[in-house]
Amino acid sequence: MEHENAESWDRLLAPLVGLGGGLIPLVAGLESLSDTPATFSLPVRIVALVIILAGYALASYALIENRFFSGMVRIQSDRGHKVVSSGPYRWMRHPGYAGALLTYLATPLLLDAPWAFLPVVFIAIVLVIRTRLEDGTLQDQLEDYRDYARRVRYRLLPGVW
After folding, report:
1. What is the pLDDT of residue 2?
2. Where are the domains of the chain?
3. Tens digit of pLDDT for each residue in 59-70?
4. CA-to-CA distance for 141 and 43, rounded, in angstroms?
5. How far apart are CA 99 and CA 51, in angstroms?
6. Alpha-carbon gap, residue 5 to 149, rounded angstroms
7. What is the pLDDT of residue 4?
8. Smaller CB count within 10 Å for the chain: N or C?
9. Rounded distance, CA 115 to CA 19, Å?
10. Is the model's pLDDT at 21 over the cut of 70?
11. Rounded to whole angstroms, how far apart are CA atoms 158 and 161?
């Protein structure tokens, strides 16, 4: 879906996140063609599955809680865009990205594909950049977001950033 008021930098970053998300299973699939023995134990893979499910749950909770959740960074003036500070937004300002990041980080473990961490690092860098830029856009353009940012200090990882 094309949004004419999407931030120009997000027209590059959003597709890069999608590309990185596609590269993880591609690299894992290519890696499975090799005859290397299993790298990660069953307990590690089970923990990875739990982390993936938690990541999906967190991102879904953010999506459900925030009617302004969008795949492109934009101020939705046409829809009366307001700050959402309930649900997971009480603890962090970008829980959708946090949930996605959890899922991406655990996927190579579940798929027993250490080389798949390469696209994960790429996605993590893009998500941190996107989070910083989105947060700046919201602080500059969305009424009451600066006050919200003072109350909810952490963007992506409570206690860290």
Report:
1. 54
2. 16-30+40-72+80-151
3. 999 999 999 888
4. 46
5. 9
6. 23
7. 64
8. N
9. 16
10. yes
11. 6
Any idea what the Cα angle at residue 30 is, between residues 106 and 71, rounded to 5°?
Answer: 50
Q: How far apart are CA 120 and CA 103, in angstroms?
A: 10
> What is the length of the chain?
161
Q: Tell me, letter by letter, the H, E, C secondary structure of the chain.
A: CCCCCCCCCHHHHHHHHHHHHHHHHHHHHHHHCCCCCCCCCHHHHHHHHHHHHHHHHHHHHHHHHCCCCCCCCCCCHHHCCCCCCCHHHHCCCCHHHHHHHHHHHHHHHHCCCHHHHHHHHHHHHHHHHHHHHHHHHHHHHCCCHHHHHHHCCCCCCCCCC
Q: What is the pLDDT of residues 147-156, one digit of tens each?
A: 999 999 988 7
As given in the structure block, the two tokens for residue 34 are 């090799």
pTM more than 0.70: yes
Residue tagged 């063609």 (tokens): 33
The pLDDT assigned to 91 comes to 92
Instruction: State how far the Cα of 96 lies from the Cα of 69, in Å rounded to an integer.
Output: 9
| Whole-angstrom distance, CA of residue 138 vs CA of residue 130 | 12
